[in-house]
Prior knowledge:
Protein name: Sodium:proton antiporter
Number of strands: 0
Main location: membrane
Organism: Rufibacter latericius
Membrane topology: Multi-pass membrane protein
InterPro entries: Cation/H_exchanger_TM
Distance between the termini: 70 Å
Amino acid sequence: MDIYLISFVVVGIAALAMAWLPTWFKEVPISYAMLFVVLGFLLYKVPIGLPEPDPLRKNEFALRLSELCVIITLMGTGIKINRRFSLFSWQVPLRLVSWTMLLCIGALAWMAWWWLGFPVASAVLLAAALAPTDPVLASDVQVGPPSEEVEDATRFALTAEAGLNDGMAFPFTWLAIALATHGLAPEDWLVHWLSYDLLYRIVVGVGAGYLLGKVLEYLLFKLPKRGKFPETQDGFVAVSSTLLVYGLTEMVHGYGFIAVFVTGLTLKHYEEDHSYHREMHDFTDQIERLLVVIVLILLGGSISRGLLDALTLEGAMVGIGFLLVVRPLAGYIGLLGVPVKTREKWAISFFGIRGIGSVFYLAFALGEADFANPEEIWAVAGFTILLSVFLHGVLATPIMQYLDRVRQPGDFIDPAKAALEMSDDNKGEPGEKPQA
Length: 436
């Protein structure tokens, strides 16, 4: 049979199922990600000639597919966040992408160096790739479509973190590349890394995202009101804007991940109740689902074809320790002093979901420099992603349902009054009356 047509049939059936699966699984402790990884694993056990899924041998394909999936998701993530940006109301995600992420990178790099015997460059790469919370696979613990609901602390924090830290982890991927290329002598790379990879690229990413968001805002919302420019309500504008913003930002060497997310936020905060935001979000969500189906099937297929063959017991323990100990503790430490209920802090800290962004970072870095132990790096990362898919997939629904059940109606956060409705551990959650 023609491999091309077989691939069409497999992806078509899987994508068609995505029209119903999120609804079916909404109330049960199963995620569609779990289902498609298992499906991919089983399909690649059958000799029907499906395309090679191994990211080690198909690095460029893994890179571009994961990149496209992440940037489209980031645009949708930005569009669906209701809360306007301020240092106070965004303090939880800002802490997660700074203190928490740094603690995660430091702890995981040390574990990979000390316990697995990785060279420093490989240890830093593994840590940088696994540090970000994935915007693609974390939808079960994120806010809903634009303006559909107000935002509780947990969903807002995890949504904003996922939007921000895929870009914020990029400097540490470049740090790993610098270490692999120049060695441990800081005089060869430190100044360039601090000034260019850390400062310049982040500033340009934020600036380009905001400026291009304002240009798009003018074209989509303001000009049509003057009657001299046709109005559009086509959702595909979100995807075309994603490609435009990402491409232009990367051309001037800024972080396109950050730019796309900031553009989504900028568009959302012009007339926040505008129906067009929902159209744009829904279209990105539909494209994202199609891409996610392909990526998850290929992830399952790569595991079936030996992605985890290089995994050792020590490597598995590092992945388990990272998900169950390092991320929750780092998250909670990063949130010390933040006026959010303790149970919300632990939920935010626990749901640091690994996923497609990690695949991108590994594929990118391994294409830029020669790292020692690439098979073992992929094996540990693949195992950690697989464990996250099943662990968080099983626990997301019951934990979020529990938080919703014990949360009082006044605990939901009105974005316009977020600063006033947040309370400390003793007073309870935002808007909750003190307990006697």
